Amino acid sequence: MFSGLFLIWRGGEWLLRRFVYENPAFAIHQLDVQTDGVIALEQLRSWAGVKLEDNLFALDLGRVQRDLELVSVVERVSVERILPHTLRLRVIERTPIAQFILPHIQGGGSREHSIYNFDAEGYVMWPLENHQHAALSAPTDTHLPVLAGLPLSELRVGRQVKSEQVRAALRLIEAFDHSSMAAVADLRRIDLTSPNILQVTTGQGGAVSFGLNDLDGQLLRWRCVYDYGQRNGKQVASLDLSVANNLPARWLEANLLPPAAPKPNQAQPHRKKNV
Predict the structure, then answer these.
(1) Residue 217: enclosing H or E segment and its boundaries?
(2) Would you call 125 exposed, middle or buried from its count of C-beta atoms within 10 A (0-12, 13-18, 19+)?
(3) What letter does residue 142 receive in the DSSP assignment?
(4) Closest by alpha carbon to 97, among 73, 113, 130, 70?
(5) pLDDT tens-place string over residues 245-275
(6) Is the pTM of this model over 0.85?
(7) What residues does 198 pair with on adjacent strands?
C-alpha cells in the first residue's frame, strides 16, 4: 500500500511539472509593471529577477515581492498572475524629503560623500542612481534640505529612524511645504546638534530655531514676523521660535543686503496615486 501511495504521489508530481510548471502555455510573455514614482520600469524588472518565458506557476511570487521590497526606495509591492501569459507588478515608492551627507576620507586623501535620503515616515534610503530614473523624470532629491548633526546610529538603510529630534525635523519639512512660508523662503539645512532644538538655515540667509512641538504654530509666527519685516523694510537675520512667550529676533536693514538668492526651481516630489 505504501508503495502504491508513493507511486501516486510521484505521478502527481510529474503531472504538475509536465503540465503546469514546465508547460509553455503558461510562459510569461508580458511583464506589466507600473509605479507611482520615478524609478525606471526596466530597473524594477531587473530588481524583480523575472524574465520573459519564465513559467507563471513556477515563479515564487513571494520571492519577487520580497526582493522588490528589500530595495530601500520601494515602500510596497503587489504581484499578480494574469493567466495565461502576464505577470503584473504594482509598486509604491518612497518619496525623499531630506538627506544627510556623510563625508569619508579614503586612502590617498581623496574625499567623497555618501548620501542618505529620508522619507516623511523616517525611512532611510539610498538615492537612486541617474540610470535608475525613468527617462523623462528629473531627480527629486537635487534640492532636498540637508540634515546635519544626525546620530550615525540612525543611518540604517531600509529602517525607520528612532530619534524624536530627527522625526521632528522631517515633520517640520512636511509642515513647511504646506505653509505660507514656502512661497517666500526655502529650507536648506536643519542642524540637530542642540538637544530639543531644530536650527534651520534658509536659502535667503536667515537662521531660525524651532522647538520640536507645535510646528504649525511656529511656522505661523514665523510668517507674522516675516510680514512685519516686509512692512518695515527689514529682514530677519535670526529668529528663535522655540521660545513660547517671546520671539527673540535679530534684524537687518533690507536695503543694506545684497539681492537674495532666488528660490531654486526644484521639482515637486511625486505624489502618490492608486496603482
Answers:
(1) helix 215-231
(2) buried
(3) T
(4) 73
(5) 777 888 887 665 555 555 555 444 444 443 4
(6) no
(7) 210
